[in-house]
Write a structure and sequence with these properties.
There is one protein chain. The chain is mainly beta and 353 residues long. The chain folds into three domains: 18-99 and 314-339; 109-185, Elongation Factor Tu (Ef-tu), domain 3 (Beta Barrel); 197-309, Elongation Factor Tu (Ef-tu), domain 3. It contains one helix and 23 strands. It has one helix spanning 285-291, and strands spanning 18-26, 30-34, 40-44, 58-64, 71-77, 84-98, 109-111, 113-114, 120-123, 136-143, 152-154, 162-165, 179-185, 197-203, 208-212, 227-234, 247-248, 251-252, 255-260, 267-270, 297-303, 318-322, 330-339. The strands form five sheets. The protein has an eight-stranded antiparallel beta sheet, with no helix packed on it. Strands 14-15-20-19-16-21 form a six-stranded antiparallel β-barrel. It has a four-stranded antiparallel beta sheet with strand order 7-13-10-11, with no helix packed on it.
């Protein structure tokens, strides 16, 4: 997805619930920073009124938060005519999301295979233009290896026909996947720091090493601003390793992080002696299909969010995403009428212009 464009001319933004933006367009999808959340968007393209461009061109577009991200209801001209036609799109439309939380991109790709290997490699349609190294993707509708459904993975070695899942050792799987869907997502790394992560491997011993599915940001000891590096583990019984779901006096006990990224890439080591614990392993396809357990995960505990003190991390904010069906033409102008209902949420509180 593109970065926030410097060409967006934001005017009239206040902490009210109704606002209008004047957007200078580039002809490509845009991400427009907002100062609050809105629940509906109406786009108006003034240059198209009363004209008859040679190809269908958007006149108006509408979206609200009851519609799917990336969808829109459109009014556009008929080719070389001033006649107006209506249609709906499911991708390339409008969405509003916050950078603090996972946000599924409108585009979903159907993949062909995921190998039962270490690391696993996913095959995708040729002429790939959606994925790039370091992105996080969510896998759904996985056939052949359903244990991977719902997982978020950092990807690498992206080519026109494949990408590698570097933190997934699938060599123990009975078979690889024969088809899947993949969507780029924005992992939650802004408001909550560190964020919860999904477990792909555990090495047992006098200390315990846990590898994660997407790039983690856990830390050792005291962080700037306070807080110790500790995690809760939530591991469904289908994955084994139940001794690590330790309880004491009726509540889960957090484990202390003693090292990061040492015994395995993208991992933490915790102060748990798991020598006598049943090994961790993905359930078989049959077991997963029957029980459909949630992915095992590690959740931060006792760690104060401190990223606002880190100048290299931007504050979380709301984003208006305009896809290819509604982004306008190069050097054009769009009017965006934004309306909000209910509580206005900002992360953190913003100052109106």
């Amino acid at each position: 997805m593109s970065t926030v464009p410097t060409t967006a001319n934001l005017q009239g933004i206040t902490q009210n619930q109704n606002d209008t933006l004047i957007i200078t367009t580039t002809g490509s999808p845009l991400l427009i920073p907002l100062q609050q959340v809105y629940t509906s968007v109406t786009l108006i393209n003034p240059s198209t009124y009363g004209t008859s461009p040679p190809s269908p061109t958007m006149i108006q577009a509408y979206w609200n938060n009851y519609m799917s991200a990336g969808s829109a209801l459109l009014l556009e001209n008929v080719s070389s005519s001033t006649t107006v036609q209506s249609l709906s799109v499911s991708t390339g439309g409008i969405s509003i999301y916050n950078t603090a939380y996972p946000s599924i991109y409108p585009v979903q790709t159907t993949g062909t295979t995921i190998t039962a290997a270490n690391p696993a490699v996913a095959s995708i349609p040729s002429a790939n233009t959606l994925f790039s190294n370091g992105q996080v993707v969510r896998l759904t509708n996985v056939v052949g290896a359903p244990q991977l459904n719902g997982y978020l993975f950092t990807i690498s070695n992206v080519t026109g026909t494949s990408f590698t899942i570097p933190y997934l050792d699938a060599s123990g799987f009975a078979a690889g996947a024969t088809s899947f869907h993949a969507q780029v997502v924005q992992p939650p790394t802004i408001v909550t720091f560190p964020s919860a992560n999904l477990i792909t491997k555990i090495i047992m011993g006098t200390s315990t090493t846990i590898q994660f599915a997407f790039t983690h940001n856990f830390f050792v000891g005291l962080a700037p601003g306070g807080g110790s590096g500790q995690v809760f583990l939530t591991i469904p019984s289908e994955y084994g390793a139940q001794g690590l779901n330790k309880t004491q006096y009726g509540s889960s006990e957090a484990w202390t992080i003693t090292a990061v990224n040492q015994a395995l890439p993208n991992s933490i080591t915790i102060n748990a002696n798991s020598s006598g614990v049943l090994p961790f392993a993905f359930p078989s396809a049959a077991v997963w299909t029957t029980n459909k357990p949630t992915p095992p995960q590690a959740t931060p505990y006792g760690q104060t969010p401190y990223n606002y003190q880190n100048a290299s991390l931007a504050n979380a904010q709301w984003i208006l995403s305009l896809g290819s069906s509604v982004c306008g033409v190069a050097s054009g102008t769009l009017y965006a009428e934004l309306k909000g209902a209910g509580s206005i949420l900002t992360y953190p509180a913003t100052v109106p212009n």
